[in-house]
């Protein structure tokens, strides 16, 4: 646990970390405050609580799964886990689970015309009766009464389509985010048309599609989805928040990065520039391996071939969406020749198969149980995955705001032709938001 805060009269204060270091002070070796928020040892309790929320939203924390199993993932006892959740969030794990369910149910009742029984199951309740009882106890009204009281107009959609909003902190550079994703599309799996992003979705045993557009006046994204995905809606919405970096605090990030004159103009011209994440960690990992030492265009061509070869075919209302993304087990079972036959060099084909095998076996999981450093260590232990690929995966699939692929040629060139080691040193003043600095370098300095 962090040490007791000393008395103010015994403290010295500095305006920046650099000034403190100049005065011969160093960051605490135990707390490591220089790491990205949420990833330092001092933030471990917060990270555990956040992971529990993620487990709930991913639909993995079911009635039959006790806290002992969850706690074991973090090397904790169920008692320690309860204490951490109570300390960080002010509620018990059961109360946390109930609150997240009720918030989703309330949003679905007010923003969609989904049947109430579908909302009950989508929110994680095992029966309509249980849903009504909890709703009545929490809100002192029935779900139907809330829907009638709100009585706000909801845009009509076909019976197999629904719509929700996902809010963000402004500003948000939607054109930049959409442009970045468009340049890296896996054809048949993803598509961009006008100002709209679409993709197929496979979560567990559920299949469908989503369509995302920007509501600038509402500081939100509009998500249209096939109702076949309603049972996995919590997981779907969380992944979309990660994909579009909706939890970022752009004003805080900009205030820190604009202290470097190199980034000042870019921050002025591109306020709200985000770090596009990943809807699926395995999908992004394959894309990162295919992007090694080739152009973005070449990697996009290869990733599209890969999806066509290993992705499950499907039918959607959109002509350009006809396949689900490849799954780890399917790729792990493929031969090196099958992968290399797509025009992928043999070294990368072996790297992709090894990566898929680690994901299929559960050795490599994209979750908050391990720190980004630990996951990157696992990644670079696989054949064909070096630091650049590991940091790129961490930047997007792990949502690590302090990733820095120092080997990246474009970054080094735009920093004046620095060596990887020198680029790493130059990046220290951007911490803990180096991922965002990278986006500005790629956007403005290339």
Q: What is the fold's blueprint, element by element?
A:
Elements: H1 17-22, H2 44-57, H3 67-73, H4 78-89, H5 93-111, H6 116-122, H7 128-139, H8 143-150, E1 161-167, H9 174-182, E2 190-193, E3 196-203, E4 206-215, E5 220-226, H10 233-243, H11 250-257, H12 261-269, H13 281-290, H14 296-310, H15 328-332, H16 336-340, H17 346-361, H18 372-380, H19 387-396, H20 409-414, H21 420-426, H22 434-445
Antiparallel strand pairs: 1-5, 2-3, 3-4, 4-5
Helix pairs in contact: 2-4, 2-5, 3-4, 5-6, 13-14, 13-17, 13-19, 18-19
Describe the model.
Helix content is 49%, strand content 8%. The chain has 446 residues and is an alpha+beta fold. It has a domain at 8-90. A hairpin with a 2-residue loop joins strand 3 (196-203) and strand 4.
Shape: globular
Q: Would you tell me the structural class of the helices and strands?
A: alpha+beta
- Low-pLDDT regions: none
Q: What would the average pLDDT be, to the nearest integer?
A: 87
Q: Helical region count?
A: 22
Distance between the termini: 44 Å
List descriptors:
five-stranded antiparallel β-sheet; single chain; 446 residues; 5 strands; 8% strand; alpha+beta
Care to give the gist of this entry?
The protein is an alpha+beta fold. It has 22 helices and 5 strands.
